[in-house]
Specification:
The structure is a homodimer. By secondary structure, chain A is an alpha/beta fold. Chain A is 46% helix and 15% strand. At the A-B interface, helix 1 and helix 3 of A face helix 1 and helix 3 of B.
């Protein structure tokens, strides 16, 4: 037993905490013996004074062990997970997981909800009527056994300490700390039982890490701490300056993912997704050339799409809409956004797009908010495209003409259009 | 209106807050709209990043204005208060206030309870049966008008914000911060309506400020911020390495104060108290020689003691015991402490003595603890005294022979006795 105030004081003065001390803080806080205000003071001290890699490993382990952990050792297939640090229009997981699963690699994926201006895989999945992400560990294991992947949320069984601590960080100004982010991500991801994890660390205006320097640091921490748990870990830095793919918005992104799995895709989304898929297969021991061949074959023969259909069935979702996306609900109005002038699109700020999407109802401002799954954006033109004056560059999908028109006007202003030519940027920054 | 999380973030990143921002934090926290955990995160950020003098002034003002303030402008006498940062055996206020009041200077004194290892004036006063420190501002003003001084606690009317914030700091490792200490002390002291305040900043092993450097810094902040409120402020640094005077313990110290007011005192206590009294009279415009003459006269003619007697009567205490201290309750056992060897006393650690006094029941370990007003210590020998082996150097006053004997043994070990000669130290460090 420790005195909580003394542990707070120790970190306040920049000293290091032992594994026992960190475990005490986490377990007593999760159990309710340490009140929110003491944890808040500790988190602020940890934010400012920092945690070193050992302390971050201790924190990760304590949060991980606050819940149950998948034991997938009886499954013969290699088990590989992927984690994205979050972006706008980032529906990569929806395509990547069934695609990789269709190549014979098991993907036990634990995903999160939208954070700040970014969307969340869990919210997108919830846009499929009936789809559930809260099964027990045993049920998810069965789903994995039957279809080679599952897509789970952070259920009550998984890292409850992280859930409680994250909620507190969110309201006490202690979110953007690399050690705290690392421990939070890993405590969930490690619970999934994967033997390797690929981190997609987003960089740029629409990412939480604005610069490659910050992103590299986070990537380094994620890999270094993950390896302490005997998990293979690799990281990729990808650009998140403008929305990824053609759509932003929950149902719209699910439909885009289904289109992808049927063989029709935007170049930027394909490029990032295929790159990550090759890397995941690489972690499973499949060399690059063979990986590309396999991925191409599974996409063309429809098995990737079939795995997604089966996932929806196994997790209780409306399979009819997967087979016929026209059955998905649709926003009442599609309001065109027109180019204010002729020229080339130089940028389309993903962060601002994300905030506008929330304004429209596609995300939450507070935890209590309800999401309107049908609303969002379709981008016909993105960075590098040439446009005529008054050409339609995007559509706003909205259920209110008033809000829709306001948002459409603001979206138009996010288009930075200039006379000089501009090329579309590359997306893979560092691997 | 501000977003609390944004103000926390601002301070977390080392930025300065405006008066409106600090006022918002204090008033919304006191009113209950800002929860403890957000205030705790803010206090930790303020602790580590610091508050500058302007911010500390804002914080002081916001806490001061959370409650009512004495308006003593209709009283003709100069109004001077004194504040001690706390020590062991520090019964100076009990003597100083009636003494200075008897010289025609009004002393509106707001005191606190024991903190950590130190004793509190309020606890000592509460040892007088019936004595109340929770009158209204109007009642205290009447008491002041009738007898030239009052001794009040931090009632519900006075700086409620400080009370709530202090309780939170106590459990979140955010106490020893000079800006936060300054604002806490001043928000209470300034409420008393004094036009000048003398700060007795204790330095040494038994003080919160261990070194003259720290003490000077606190003294400087207290005076600088007090002056922002158009209050004259001076500070004195006095040594607190060993207990002050002959007794430690609540009733024992009240009796020692009564003895003093009857003209019998220990040299160290007299030296500090008279020095502070001269300085308080100085703040009231009385020059030093005249001040000494006046103080001596008022002590000898019994008016100082008479003022104390009248205070006890006006604040509801048992006057009989003041007139005949034999009527005060007394601990059942007086257990002698003997010198382990012959030589000179080199030191007697005041902090350890304070902690032993709490062990004995003279102070609180937690807010809920009840104090035994009768228990404590009498010191026959202190630093600089020559002792024989087995000579009685102190008595433990206890109501349990078991605890009393244990404490007596530990107290004996606190006496650092050596063969070499040692002189008693001076007490005034800097003025």
């Amino acid at each position: 037993m420790f005195l909580t105030a003394e542990l707070i004081t120790k970190k306040r003065d920049g000293k290091k905490l032992s594994e026992e001390e960190i475990r005490f803080l986490v377990s007593e806080y999760t159990g309710g013996s340490i009140p929110d205000y003491q944890m808040a003071a500790f988190l602020m001290a940890a934010f400012i004074r920092g945690l070193d890699r050992r302390e971050t490993t201790f924190l990760t382990r304590a949060m991980l062990e606050s819940g149950r952990v998948f034991d997938l050792s009886s499954l013969p297939a290699p088990k590989i997970d992927k984690h994205s640090t979050g972006g706008v229009g980032d529906k990569v997981s929806l395509v990547l997981a069934p695609w990789v699963a269709s190549c014979g690699v098991a993907v036990p994926m634990i995903s999160g909800r939208g954070l700040g201006h970014t969307g969340g895989t869990l919210d997108k999945l919830s846009a499929i009527p009936g789809f559930r992400t809260d099964f027990s560990i045993e049920q998810f294991t069965e789903i994995l056994r039957g279809n080679n992947f599952f897509m789970a949320g952070q259920t009550v069984e998984i890292a409850p300490a992280d859930k409680k601590i994250y909620a507190l960080r969110d309201v006490t100004g202690t979110v953007p700390s690399i050690p705290l982010i690392t421990a939070s991500i890993l405590s969930k991801k490690l619970a999934g039982g994967a033997e390797a994890i690929l981190f997609d660390v987003k960089v740029g205006r629409g990412a939480f890490m604005r610069t490659p320097k910050e992103a590299k640091e986070l990537a380094f921490w994620l890999c270094a701490v993950a390896r302490q748990f005997k998990v293979k870990a690799e990281a990729v830095l990808t650009r998140m300056d403008e929305p990824l793919g053609r759509f932003v918005g929950n149902i719209l992104e699910v439909k885009e993912a289904l289109e992808f799995l049927s063989g029709r895709f935007e170049a930027d989304l394909y490029h990032v997704t295929e790159y990550l898929a090759v890397r995941m297969l690489g972690l499973a021991g499949i060399e690059e050339k063979e990986a590309r061949r396999l991925l191409s074959a599974r996409l063309l023969d429809g098995s990737a799409r079939q795995h997604f259909r089966e996932l929806v069935r196994l997790q209780g979702g409306f399979v009819g809409a997967v087979e016929n996306p026209g059955l998905f609900a649709r926003a009442e109005y599609q309001i065109p956004v027109r180019a204010p002038q002729a020229g080339w699109v130089w940028s389309l700020d993903a962060r601002e797009v994300g905030l506008l999407a929330i304004e429209l109802g596609a995300g939450r401002k507070t935890v209590q908010d309800k999401i309107d799954y049908t609303v969002g954006f379709e981008f016909l033109k993105k960075t590098g495209a040439q446009v005529e004056k008054e050409e339609t560059v995007a559509f706003v999908h909205s259920n209110s003409t008033v809000t829709g028109r306001e948002v459409a006007m603001e979206l138009g202003q996010l288009y930075d259009i200039r006379r000089e030519k501009k090329k579309a940027p590359g997306l893979i920054i560092k691997s």
